[in-house]
Specification:
The chain is an all-alpha fold. It contains 2 helices and no strands. It starts with a helix and ends in a 15-residue tail after the last helix.
């Protein structure tokens, strides 16, 4: 979902995607998204 937001923003502004910045933004902590882990491997 984050990738889609970044590509849509790039298309809207006409700015090319900076891959270094994109990597930083995709790997950054995002308060909007949460991953729930249920169970565990044994």
């Amino acid at each position: 979902m984050r990738w889609q937001r970044f590509t849509a923003e790039s298309a809207r502004t006409g700015e090319p995607i900076d891959t270094r910045d994109l990597e930083r933004r995709l790997l950054a902590d995002d308060d909007e998204e949460t991953t729930v882990v249920i169970g565990s491997w044994t």
